[in-house]
Amino acid sequence: MSALPRLATALRHSLVTTLVVGLVAVVAITVTTSSARLTASTTANPITPGNFTGYGFDQCEAPSQAAMTAWRKSSPFRAAGIYISGSLRFCQKQTNLTPTWVRTQLAAGWRLLPIHLGAQASCTTRDRYQKNRISADPADTYAKARSQGRAEARIAVAAAQRLGIVPRSTLYYDLEAFNPKIASCKASSLWFLGAWTNQIHQLGYVSGVYSSAASGMKILDDARVTPGNKVALPDQIWIADWNDKADTNSTYIRSDGWPGARIHQYQGGHNEKWGGVTINIDRNYLDLRGQASTPPPISTPEGSKLYDAKCTTASINRWTYRYATPTRRPGMVVPLQCLLKQRGLYTWPVTGKWNSMTTKAVASWQKRVKHPVRKGFTRADWVSLLSAGNSGTTLKPGVRGADVIRAQRTLNAGGPGLIKITGIYDASTQKAARAYQIANGIKPTEGIIAKVTWGAFSKGTW
Q: Alpha carbon 256 to chain centroid distance?
């Protein structure tokens, strides 16, 4: 064979070998990539916050892992707000906030509320917000403001993805308080938030907005009921209204908007101690229409003179609440001392034994509600005490939360009892409420508890 044919044959063999090797490499890469994708998909973090009803807190700096572990074991909170991004957030460093931190909290059962604090209203008066304000230029339907809103959304999504916060999770824009009476400020803020929502949706996430009830929340709610409104509205709202009521209501916005898609920041910055760890937090109540376990009534932080580890939902719940004295029904003393402690009248350790401090606290409560003062605690006293602290929320089938627990306990005191205390306004609770209304001359409202029935509870009517 001449040199030329031998060269051609060699080239053919070389080409075939190269193709085979290349094909194997491609297959190997494909398999490796597919495996990587499969691994990633099977180990992805859960959507957050998802369906959830209960208590949450927010704090600028993500707490340490030790703090989160301690609070997971000891506190009533199961949701935590974290500032993941934004040029104006106070906590720019976020030493603890890493993908590992996020994954660990989600695996432990925490629901995370990712917050982005970027451009603020054009009329903001806070000095630190002046460097990044929403444009109030009305040209082309506030085109500049809308462009800003889209840009902020892209930044927030990029930050969420870096932290392992998966699509379909909710990202909340933090729009701090402003004057909604300034027309250009109101309109630009509204179009900005609408653009945020549209861009968040396009990037595969759920849109949330946090704002003051009197400004950001009000303009969104007004837009919701405006005929022909063209501004996209968020999927969830986070209402800042520090009225100390653990529900999702606010006098600034209508009750029919965003049902089952609300968070209420009801208490501002303060120190709370749980599991021996103190964190400065805001308190929140979430109703995201979940199937999670019912939250307990408002708890008292460690270190407070009103805190006692013996006061749990289980220790206070009873099928019936009947007349108790220093020598009669000793099993009722723990819930009595706990409830009086919640009202600030019994500030000593819960012992389960009727002592002189219990007698003093009982008399103080009876005077407060204008009941006869005696050494025993009557059913009327129980009815008034068990309903104390309610927010006056209208209770009807499907409603859940701390006020439902109060109502269920109260009906067990003022009626035949035997209602299972679940925190969910179910058929048995509705039936008991209707029976209570009929028995006490209250016009039956199909078992719905509203102002008149709450008033009767407060008086101790049974």
A: 18
